Fold these 2 entries.
Entry 1:
Amino acid sequence: MKLRTTRITCLLLLCLLFTDARAQELMTNVYGRQLQSLNGKWDAIIDLYNQGRKNKIYLNRKPQGKTDFYEYAFDHGLRLNVPSDWNSQMPELKYYEGTVWYARRFDAPRQADQRLYLYFGAVSYRCRVYLNGEEIGSHEGGFTPFQIEVTDQVKESDNFLAVEVNNTHTTDAIPALAFDWWNYGGITRDVFLVSTPNVYIQDYFVQLDKEKPDQIDASVRLSEKVANQMVELEIPELRIRQRLATDSEGVARASFRAKKLQRWSPEDPKLYQVVISSESDKVEERIGFRNIGVKGEDIYLNDRPIFLKSVSFHEEIPQRRGRAFSEADAVMLLSEAKALGCNMIRLAHYPQNEYIVRIAEEMGFLLWEEIPIWQGIDFENDDTRQKAGYMIREMVTRDKNRCALAFWGVANETQPSAPRNEFLKYLIACCKEIDNTRLITAAFDLVRFNRESQVFVMDDPFIRELDVVAVNKYMGWYHQWPVTPDKAIWDVARGQPLILSEFGGEALYGKTGDADIVSSWSEDYQATLYRDNIEMFNHIPNLRGVSPWVLFDFRSPFRFHPTHQEDWNRKGLVSDQGYRKKAWYLMKEYFESIQ
């Protein structure tokens, strides 16, 4: 009954979301649409005291008479790159949290039968959008996309677009006040003007059945509730052409056999060209097909058990000290994971940009994607819960056609309580209303050593709500060894697959020191720590994956040791300059030993 109530609440929230002009439903596969890029140099104003809205600077007024003046101007002032964060573009903005106004002009030539949308890949963290002097939309959440229809607001030429961006972290935000990564602000991902027909293909979900290796399930939804419209789905390489008719909701569904289908896997990441056509629209993209599930303590990919050789990274280019946002950035991050021997990436701790997700799929990485429910969340705040619901829906909607997505993550390092449990159940229900084929997971930091039984245990009944249980445990760093690693026996989440989702410790690249002294901050101690953890893995009977924390050193205000950290978390296997530490080679050897 509780789960049903949660699902009904989730659906009601979805209805509210879709009828709110400020939070419009996303179209699937924006990169497959007719696009006009609005990337490039934007004019900017730093609004230290949040006076811009009060003074209506989005009107961009100019003095008209001898006595007119305004205490602001977008012209001939600061200019910032979009997409990018502002912190990495000017030394004065390195630590800045607050409001920055962005503005640019654009033309919008269009045909009479077209609709136009402004699409933002992500804006960190809150924003209001103004077009030609009118507020047209707003969004909260720094890592998911949003769109606003502007068909009736745009002019053929000389449109003035202003975006008020604020990255101040607050108690009701997601993430909340404290989080262990850099709080980059800005328009951090692509901005597009998207053109569509009046009735267009708004959404589709094309996937392999959760269990059947040759059954494709497809649903297509038009932007309007138009019945008896013909929709065609074609996969040329498989000689599949299905003609479907929409129902009264504008939705067409079908399930059909696919002969000689080659399933996607990390070893052979096969993708097929899929073409979806309606009477007025056509969308194409490359989609892969695979089965993933759980049987007892094993994770099965395409009917075979798999061990997840994973690693995490932040959406950051450490050498540039800025957000990753481009295809080149994605290739850099993922190539280092490929060299390490990984078959999975945990995209920590938030949905990362679509280039990373799509290129990871092409390179053969399974993916774990999550929203930043990271410690400190106010689980009793209903507004926060609704925000989380919006975010996880935006994440799942964007990436549900990516077969590489294996896990939806709903939390990281949260403490047990009744409000937390209901909050997370709600997020699980929100995921499953859109996609019930992926595995649900969450990462916990609650494992403790029971001195009476001399084993590691964890007490949190909520794990039974999950398909796969994940644990962060920093043995040898935050937790000293109560027994030697060869006697570190685990009895955690028995009967379910377990992933060690974070482990490791900090080391400054090039620093040598005693291999048994934690405070040496040395590569030598980090290597010892990794050897010990690798030994411990042998004594976790239901271990089905490991993911060291983290691939690259990353920026974090939490880390202020004056000589060893300097605002960097040094747990990376690779330094902020791109140099591999000794522990990198140990993990590579370990991954190579697993068949």
Entry 2:
Amino acid sequence: MRRMRKKDEYSVELENIETEENAGSSETVKKSRKGRHAFEIIAVLLIFAVGMFSVYSVLSFKYIDSVFKMEMFYEQPEDSVDILVLGSSHSYQGINTAVLWEEYGYAAYDLCGAGQFIWNTYYYLEEALKTQSPKLIILDAYYLHVTDDYEDESFAIKNTYGMKWSQTKVDAIKASFDSDLYGLQYFFEILQYHSRYSDVDETDFYPYQANEAMYENHKGFYCYFYSTPVEEKDFSEVDYYNEMTEKVEEYYAKILELAYSENIPVIVVGIPFDADNYHVAFFRTGERIANMFGYPFLNFLTDYKDELGLDYSTDFADSQHLNYLGNTKLTRFLGDYISENYSIPDRRGDENYSSWEADAQIYYYQLENKNTTLITDISEYADTVANNRYQVIITKNSSADGEQEMSSSELSEFLSAVGISQEEFTNGGVWIYSGGEQVYHNDCTEEDFQKSYSLSKYDDAMISTSYDDEGVMIIDVYMNKTEVTAADYGLNVYVYDTLTRTSVDSIGINPNNFALSRIDFYQ
């Protein structure tokens, strides 16, 4: 009996142990299930967050005239910007960073924005000083004349949404939007993106405006290469001052005070535009305040006209902005002024500043493109075809009976240089050149000739033939569905730059009178 009791006690004890083990195992299973459930929730949240971030990145504004400039500023190496240019589009189109680099060796950045009111300029400076210690600030005075306490919402977005989130950005948004009208909606950027779906293009999916070669070293400068005549005015009788609004004067003084506290010299500039007495009187007020801090105010509307040498018939892109001719003159004046009055180092040859050299080269490539449009001698076009950056499409339609065939020494030189025989040219057809090498030729004898040709990663050309009432073959060239053929009959040469992703030039030569026609891509 005792053995039986012991056995029973052992069995009960064993059962208790097994029960405890099973309970522990069950608890482990429960914990494991909870762990997996938590992991699944976290994974779903991560996937959702990544998805939302992707949508946010695609739909976010990428304005090249504002947001992009600030985003690129963040990419500049710390304490590398020696000259900080602040202000509106007048400054980022008027002060040429490429000329400052190429001719003076100055590492300048145009941290500006389209329609930028003075309070946005202040917060841009505050943000810039977090990573940079500029040796000189050039401040654009254009918006000293505004009388509104808030700018248009679109410009306010442009001049705040490129900034990283910080107290500076919060303060900039508060200063830019009337909270009594809009509440806090502009603090939630995604609310401003909901209508962008129809506007999405390749620049929303790829960095650097979908053109890394051109914009990866961007220093904020943007240039127009066309001309609009502007009236030159005499402001010699403006001897009065216009009073700034309280808000404008407050932020203008805050910019000068902040620079002064950081021991940074400032040059305030009134950049030329189609102004009137009203603007000049505000500039005079701005000059008086700048001088109180010991800073110069260079008013180019009233002073230095002979030294600057602006031609008001050719040196403006429009009534508000200088073009490539005008900004070169203004920048050279400023470069000379800076070299005479400040100690800014020449960074040329320093490999740490190679991005400034690369960015300047982009401008001079654009200038080369513009100069291509000034060529009027067809024989000179052989050099254009040989340019390594260019894709060139040459077309020549067939000839109607009795039509005078083109012949000149200039044309013969051109054809010989690009490797087109006289027989090929007489028969007509299409020739395509890439980097100076002929990569395609077709005499287009088939009735319904069509060819698609990739100009670059994002741009395509379509070449097609049609026939007029007399049976003469006409060859048309389209770039992204826009016709780029300069003349219906005769010789056509279309030039595309693969680096800037732009149509450079398109010329046509009439076979009967050898007259030159041209498409102006710069208007």
